[in-house]
Automatic annotation (TrEMBL):
GO cellular component term, pick one: cytoplasm
EC annotation from Swiss-Prot or TrEMBL: 3.5.4.16
Keyword GTP-binding: yes
Keywords recorded for this protein, A-Z: GTP-binding, Hydrolase, Metal-binding, Nucleotide-binding, One-carbon metabolism, Zinc
Protein name: GTP cyclohydrolase 1
Oligomeric and partner information: Homopolymer.
Any GO BP annotation: tetrahydrofolate biosynthetic process
Family: Belongs to the GTP cyclohydrolase I family.
Organism: Kaistella jeonii
Pfam families: GTP_cyclohydroI
Residue span(s) of domain GTP cyclohydrolase I: 36-213
PANTHER family: GTP CYCLOHYDROLASE 1 (PTHR11109:SF7), GTP CYCLOHYDROLASE I (PTHR11109)
């Protein structure tokens, strides 16, 4: 079975999720690159950079391509991963935990990196998901200007839709470079967020089992 969870309007644009304009998908990726390139050229020029310099002259286009196709590629619906699920013929009834999924995102306040790990779990309600699809969902939502709380919730909501179950959980531990390398410049601190749904919220034994698998060690160093 294949589900395109971004057809769920609430999940993609709804309140509490990524704040997108109504015309967010009207321009093509190439049109977006052209516009961002022009504006980034102006930013660099305003900073006093000599834009005729060999090393700098192509930077605005590099940055624009990187924004549209790479680090903010999760704003293009065509990059939404197709999620194939399989029926749970072997009747595995315990939780599945996908640990230490790499998170590379960008904070929407400063456009600086958020780097960390996501730990995702679900209990099958008849469907199972290919393991790599969990990593792909994390990566898709990470590739947007983000706050960590919203990213954590979007991952859980996407899996709930794909798997037709409420029993999904996600913990993210991450370092925010806007905290580490500017402003307060606290290089030691990191941020943990958790979204627990269904049994992970209501059943203390399920929650404890998940936390036990994830452990309390920090994987960020
Ligand atoms: N809740 C939340 N806050 C975040 C996240 N990423 C960055 N921030 C915070 O967003 C806030 C923006 O605060 P402002 O006071 O408007 O910006 P600022 O003057 O640059 O703040 P400082 O970082 O304290 O210098 C900062 O406190 C950031 O640490 C996130 O994922 N979640
Ligand atoms: Zn920030």
């Amino acid at each position: 079975m294949s589900k395109n969870f971004d057809n769920d309007d609430d999940l993609f644009t709804g309140k509490g999720y990524t704040p997108l304009r109504d015309d967010a998908f009207e321009k093509s990726p190439e049109e977006k690159i052209e516009i961002i390139q022009k504006h980034f050229h102006e930013i660099m020029e305003t900073l006093g950079m000599d834009m005729t310099d060999d090393s700098l002259k192509d930077s605005p286009r590099r940055v624009a391509k990187m924004y549209v196709n790479e680090i903010f590629g999760g704003l293009l619906p065509e990059n939404n991963p197709r999620i194939s699920t399989f029926s749970n013929k072997y009747k595995y009834r315990q939780m599945l935990v996908e640990k230490d999924i790499t998170v590379y995102s960008f904070c929407e306040h400063h456009f600086l990196p958020i780097i960390g790990r996501a730990h995702v779990a679900y209990i099958s309600n008849g469907e199972v998901i290919g393991l790599s699809k969990i990593n792909r969902i994390v990566d898709y939502y990470a590739k947007r200007p983000q706050v960590q709380e919203r990213l954590t919730m979007q991952i859980v909501e996407a899996l709930k839709v794909a798997l037709g179950t409420k029993d999904v959980a996600c913990i993210i531990e991450a370092k925010h470079l806007c905290v580490n390398c500017r402003g307060i410049k606290d290089t030691a601190s990191s941020t943990t967020t958790a979204e627990l749904s269904g049994l992970f919220r209501t059943n203390p034994i399920t929650r404890q089992e998940f936390l036990h698998y994830v452990g309390s060690r920090s994987n960020l160093d």
